[in-house]
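Note on ligand handling. Small-molecule inputs were canonicalized before submission; formal charges were left as drawn, and no protonation-state enumeration was performed. Where a ligand contained multiple stereocentres, the stereochemistry in the source SMILES was retained. For zinc ion, this procedure yielded the string shown in the input block below.
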Amino acid sequence: MEQHIDNIDFSRKSREIRDIICLSDFKRLQDICLNLEDSIAFVLKGFENKYREHCLELCIEGKLDLICQRCTEKLEHTIFLRSGFLIKEETQLTDFQVDDHAEYDLIESNVKMDILSLIEDEMILSLPSAPRHENDKCRYKKTDETLDRIHPFADLKQKLYKN
Ligand SMILES: [Zn+2]
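Structure output:
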């Protein structure tokens, strides 16, 4: 797969790349994900919008094993993202209408845009800052209940007033 594209040219020619990437190819995600053999699928499309501006659309789909911040066990997280980008050229800066582009994120025009980096950015931005299981699925809670049952301080009163 080509990792770098000229994003203006890509959009002008309405090009499209679809591929599958192993998580081990992402540098920053390696610290967040447990299973680096998992992979994600993506489609990157170039097009021009109704204002004849250069745009990209990126769709990402996959499953990541995150780490639950409460019990530190595996937490399956499904990713299904669709992002739109407006490629900002120098000449557009003056007559730029923000309202018209609410659904797009701005990116710089770049003759060597890094696709992997764009995909990784989108995934990291979409992830919860403190991922954790739902209450009934988290092992931490189970440990809690076990402690409750043992009642470590149940005989405290007895010990205190023994004398
Ligand atoms: Zn958990």
